[in-house]
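Just curious: can you write whichever protein you like plus the matching structure tokens?

***
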Amino acid sequence: MGILDSILSLIPHVKKPSTPLSFKEKLKWTAVVMAIYFGFFSTPAFGVSRAALSQPVLQLINIIFAARTGTLITVGIGPIVLSSIVLQLIQGTGLLKIDLSDPQQKGKFQGIQKLSAIVIAVVESIIFTSTGYVPLASSSYFGIVVLQLAVSAIIVIFLDEIMVKYGLTSGINLFIAGGVAYAVIAGTVNILIPGAQIALANGGASAIPNAFLAFGPLIFAILVMLISIYAYDMKVELPLAFSQLRGVGGRLPIPFLYVSVLPVILATSLIVSLSVWFSFLAHVNTGTFASVAHFIALYQIQQSATGATSTILVGGVLYLISPNFPLPYQSPYGIGGYGPYVSYLLSSSSQFYMPWGGIIYVPEWIHIITYTLFLVILCIIFGKFWVEMTGQSPKSVSEQLQGIGWQIPGFRRDPRIIESVLNKYIPTITVLGSIFVALLASLATLTGAIGSGMGILLTVGIMYMLYQQIEREHMLEGYSSINNLLS
């Protein structure tokens, strides 16, 4: 670990503020960081084909990684999320033995996470540029594009750290919310004008059905938003009593979305990353490895009218577990409405290469079922893992309640008693909440909701957490005694 410690000491870090920041100061820092992010978001990278800015196939990837392909923010928050996933998996298996309850050990863990995020940022910048994921205006721009994407991605890593220590919430949350807000506004403008023209042109008795179909992506986006808001208000409340003061009690809320949308963020990030990482297989068309490569993922290299090329996932195992469809079937709006879109899903098939030779055709409805089930399973795994890793398990919560003097009325003061009661709720709610967000995200994504249903779901969750954080900030500023007690 000596070499690792030497490397970690060379990585810059953002110091925590010497004194607690006021709400207004945190708001200012948040505004500054978001201004820099949107500056990157709107600045095309030099040497990248402008056609990259408008590829519809990249919408879901951009939303999940708070990115915009072709700009300085192309890599987005991918390195931060992926390094977190990898290190948590390694920590969970026991290969990396770090006590996160020890501040010094926790600092080392965060340093390792930052180092791995920087490495991933450089690697992804090279992969994105070399595989055609980011179309170049000319091959001579390869080096300068990689440099721009890598440096910008590293800056985003530090922007997230600044937001965590000086802002209202994590940078990852607000970057995703900002990207979704842009997608929703742009998508609404693109749908309202042609949608109104379609409804008016048809007129008569079919005007209302035509309007519904034309505005379907907007309607589904609003529906997902309302369902998400309702789900966030669902919770189970357990009565609590303060052991040291008779008559003083409270309630422990266990929300239905106990782990919020974190499982679906991690699961979708992993699925999307795999489809991007394996895009190098698009160039494997000959030799003994070709059949295995096509079994894993089958890609097509497509060329736009402007001459820019893009790599599209159209078959293989990765295709079956992803929400991808070949162009122009990425969404109902892209193909001209829900009629042709549903017809395609019910009647079309994708190629599936078997490693031992031969091709079978898999119907798209099986693709939809496979993707949904895989997303549900991943969300359950990540949900249960996240509960254990973040101190939200029944055992951890019972120890926290015991430490501050809370107990469940009618039971003796023993953390094992509290743990047994929490075990009746937390594991079940974690699984049910993970299944719910997975199904809602897959449904919304497949129905083509504006900003992708995934983006809407994430944004509602992020805004809900931000609202709670703002409420807490106001409470602590209004009651200095509480602030001193909790600090």
The longest strand covers residues 235-242.
